[in-house]
Amino acid sequence: MNDDAKIKPYTGPAGGWGSVKSVESILAREGRLISGNALLLKQNKPDGFACVSCAWAKPAKPHPFEYCENGAKATAWELTTKRVTPEFFAGHTLSELRTWPDHDLEEAGRLTHPMRYDRATDTYVPVAWDEAFREIGQALKGFDPRQVVLYASGRASLETSYMWALFARLYGTSNLPDSSNMCHESTSVALQESIGVPVGTVILDDFEKTDCILFFGQNVGTNSPRMLHPLQDAAKRGVPIITFNPLKERGLERFTNPQAPTEMLTGSETSISSQYHQLKIGGDIAAIMGLAKILIEADDQARAEGRSPVLDHDFIAEHTHGFEAIAEAARQAQWPELERRSGLRRATLEAAANIYARANAAMGIYGMGLTQHKAGVENVQMLANLLLLRGNIGKPGAGICPVRGHSNVQGQRTVGISEKPELVPLDKLKEQYGFEPPRWKGMTTVEVCKSIIDGEVKAFVALGGNFVRAAPETAALEEAWTRLPLSVQISTKLNRNHLIPGEVTYILPCLGRIEIDEQETGPQAVAVEDSTACIHGSKGVAKPASPDLLSEPRIVAEIAKATLPANDRVPWDEWVADYSRVRDAIEETYPDNFRGFNERMWQPGGFHRPIAARERIWKTKTGKANFIVPKSLEADLGIAENDPDVFQLMTVRSNDQFNTTVYGYHDRFRGMKGTRMVLFMNRSDIARLKLEEGDLVMLTTAVDDGVRRQVSGLRVTPYEIPEGCCASYYPECNLLIPVWHHADKSKVPAAKSIPIRIELLQRRQPEAAE
Ligand SMILES: Nc1nc2c(c(=O)[nH]1)N[C@H]1C(S)=C(S)[C@@H](COP(=O)(O)OP(=O)(O)OC[C@H]3O[C@@H](n4cnc5c(=O)[nH]c(N)nc54)[C@H](O)[C@@H]3O)O[C@H]1N2
Ligand SMILES: Nc1nc2c(c(=O)[nH]1)N[C@H]1C(S)=C(S)[C@@H](COP(=O)(O)OP(=O)(O)OC[C@H]3O[C@@H](n4cnc5c(=O)[nH]c(N)nc54)[C@H](O)[C@@H]3O)O[C@H]1N2
Ligand SMILES: [Mo]
């Protein structure tokens, strides 16, 4: 913990002056106060670049400053004037760098030169690009493609992602896990079964037409702050916003728009949530079943009495399958169990159900609070059930809205990065490029972790990300990583994964999306797909961090050329010279989604690819939207059930990080300053365990599989969170997640419900609690 750590409740709104100050301090720290400010004006603009932070939609008529506090931080972080050069590496062994905190690694600046690990000196040494490509290609040729993993973090553009997935299949592997496997894969699996599309159905326009928003398990003020604008507009129109979240999240309570001068001057705030329900971790299925029970029983009664129904029976009859089964499950569910599992009272759920029952068009918004559980898929399907009961899919102002994470994570799946062959038009690829693509199922992230730990993976090539830090089972994974024959990281900044070398290890530094990408035919643009399936162009505007950097498409093409036999139907060099030709190829593979790609990506607001469920076309096995009865009312069955000393731990993000990238040690909205090593607990749990605020504790995972997993030195911090639940930060707590602790159906690590025990390590120091 930093000496100046301070923990005090935060009393301001989300946004506001705190947000402006926070942006200015990071711009100053990264040496970018003046030029960074000018570049921010280009963020999320038709002639500018798409923010590298979250995947929230960009409006067609952007605000003058279409960025948020965290988008601005992400920009400043990428545009930093600091550099990690070959001299930097010469001066620091990996053993030394491993003692640095994550924050300091990335804070060291942008990577400038391709590097290869030298075991004799325990340092990275520079390598020429062509030599690196030749050696990597040579090594890949010698492996069984089934033992090679091509990981992608969700930031790379549609063009790069298409080339990456094509390279994998030409090479002969389906092992294409991406960050989505740790994130919204529960959504992709759940919604495909429920409504026949793997993505959300809501677009920005729907926010203007909705009259009820149900908000589950997403921390909008921190993780998708630009979404506060449509939420604020809706709240101002009087639209009820009903939030279900174990933690009181400031962005869901109050917001002052930092870009509205009068709001800033007068300090006026908008209340966001009209109802805020602090349910138990993993209590969503029970809570939503409770809502469904209230609606279904009220509907039974209304119909028996000849009053107008509560449910949309025309929609149910014409468009859905399985209504009777879900209705019966809801009628059978017992209130004592629903209350115990959700942690909410029946009266509370009635208050929410009353609002929902009156809305003509309602939407359900959610994030990692639903997806990262053992029953993450069932969580999402239960929300879909609730929406279907009143016909809330496929009409204006209604729909389901998973808030995606990385800025192109949804798009990567659209253009073929998937370990599931059935989701990719393999016959089309075969015809287009004249080869036989592999048809076997590739590994997900957790399967990759297991295989690395078991020593079965020969090579791991990463298109961005920080896999060892983001994945579960950190200790075993790091240890096994050192035996990987080949580890290649395509990256912009130094991170933990670079410090865990395999037998042969390369860092290949690339341009970021904000930088000008000059190729043979001139500066290139790329495209990304946001959370609402809207695709738009992005042009780099900043001078590259180093003349030695290559673009991601170029790096992918060079690795492919060095690995694969020549195939004149795959014009790697022509694609790199002119990315619009990659877009032509994407259009040829996916004509329905990408018709007129090169022109339409520059339309104001971009273009929406068609989402069948929006049109009430159901591409499911039954040909209808499916009500799906959850197997249990508990999202994390068996955890912390019978032992009061076992707690459910959720691992969340602070307002000063982007995933494993730690910008700083503050979490303004949660009142934390100077430390991330905290454990948020309910006051009565603190008292019951005879702990005190400021005590340092150790957490151990409460499972019995012969592995000891622990994190030490977390500071006990009282917080508004239900009893039996606690919260701490990701990635520090990833050490606690067993690799087998994941969503049953989607394999997303269950990072929001880790069973743990808490032990006192050290009594509070008198000054620590000030
Ligand atoms: N600034 C910033 N922006 C980001 C990111 C970042 O790290 N920093 N990461 C990006 C990425 S990749 C992603 S996926 C998104 C993540 O954005 P979020 O989905 O907001 O992810 P988390 O921070 O993990 O927070 C999850 C929320 O779920 C709540 N929660 C936990 N358990 C439960 C539960 O059982 N039920 C319910 N109802 N709620 C629960 C938590 O209290 C918390 O508010 O953000 C993206 N945007
Ligand atoms: N316990 C716990 N674990 C979690 C989660 C959780 O909530 N709790 N969340 C999960 C989720 S939702 C996600 S999405 C994953 C995130 O997992 P990842 O996507 O693997 O991790 P990031 O931290 O986003 O990756 C950061 C690194 O990406 C590189 N990078 C940044 N920009 C670029 C670029 O433009 N190009 C390239 N090539 N590289 C770039 C930088 O080197 C940086 O160090 O973590 C998951 N892990
Ligand atoms: Mo994510």
Could you give the topology of this structure?
Elements: E1 6-7, E2 14-15, H1 16-29, H2 33-40, H3 69-78, E3 83-84, H4 86-90, H5 94-97, H6 102-107, E4 110-111, E5 115-118, E6 123-126, H7 129-142, E7 148-152, H8 158-171, H9 185-195, H10 204-209, E8 212-216, H11 220-223, H12 228-236, E9 241-244, E10 254-256, H13 261-266, E11 270-271, E12 275-277, H14 284-304, H15 313-319, E13 320-321, H16 323-332, H17 335-342, H18 346-358, E14 362-366, H19 368-371, H20 376-389, E15 399-402, H21 409-414, H22 426-433, H23 445-453, E16 459-463, H24 467-470, H25 474-481, E17 486-491, E18 504-509, E19 517-519, E20 522-529, E21 534-539, H26 552-563, H27 572-577, H28 579-589, H29 597-600, E22 607-608, E23 625-626, E24 647-652, E25 657-658, E26 661-662, E27 672-673, E28 678-681, H30 683-688, E29 696-701, E30 710-718, E31 725-729, E32 754-762
Parallel strand pairs: 2-10, 3-4, 7-16, 8-9, 8-14, 9-12, 13-23, 14-15, 16-17, 17-18, 24-31, 28-30
Antiparallel strand pairs: 1-27, 5-6, 5-18, 10-11, 19-20, 20-21, 21-22, 24-32, 25-26, 28-31, 29-30, 29-32
The structure holds ligand MGD (2 copies) and molybdenum atom.
Keywords: 4Fe-4S, Iron, Iron-sulfur, Metal-binding, Molybdenum, Oxidoreductase
Domain Molybdopterin oxidoreductase: 110-486
GO molecular function, one term: 4 iron, 4 sulfur cluster binding
